[in-house]
Amino acid sequence: MKSFENDYFLDQPVSQKLLIAVRMLGEFKGKESLFRDQFPEVLKTLQQTAIIQSTESSNRIEGIFVPEKRIRLIVAQNVKPLNRPEEEVAGYKDILNDIHTNASKNKLTP
């Protein structure tokens, strides 16, 4: 595949839209630091909500259906799973937690 050759991407044109998007990412990264320092509780709440929603959606994609209330209890309060579908939810939560807490240690390679 040509896209995996070393210099392939260096020879590709860069659109103005892409440059604007990259600039905005840098700007938002700076704002993230500001929010992280000034409003840590808000970011923690947003992160917790995202983890719950991600857990519910990802498990539903896999055909695993658990009531939202149980998902919230398992994810946010570490309630013990009662059955196999709830064990799947707990496992997904554990993996997400590992990703978030060990992100700097996990090296991704092609």
**Quaternary structure state of the chains depicted:** single chain
Mean pLDDT: 88
Helix content: 55-70%
Q: Could you say how many structural domains there are in total?
A: 1
Low-pLDDT windows of residues: none
List the secondary-structure elements in sequence, H or E: HHHH
Look at the helices and sheets and give the structural class.
mainly alpha
Helical stretch tally: 4
In total, how many beta strands?
0
Radius of gyration: 19 Å
Strand content bin: under 5%
Tell me, briefly, the overall form: extended
Distance between the termini: 14 Å
Largest sheet: none
Topology diagram in text:
Blueprint (H helix, E strand, L loop, with lengths): L15 H23 L1 H22 L6 H10 L6 H18 L9
Helix pairs in contact: 2-3, 2-4, 3-4
Structure characterization notes:
It is a single chain. This protein has 110 residues and is mainly alpha-helical. The chain has one domain. Helix content is 66%, strand content 0%. The model has no long low-confidence stretch (mean pLDDT 88).
From the structure above, extract its key features.
110 residues; 0% strand; mainly alpha
Q: What's a concise summary of this model?
A:
This protein has 110 residues and is mostly helical.
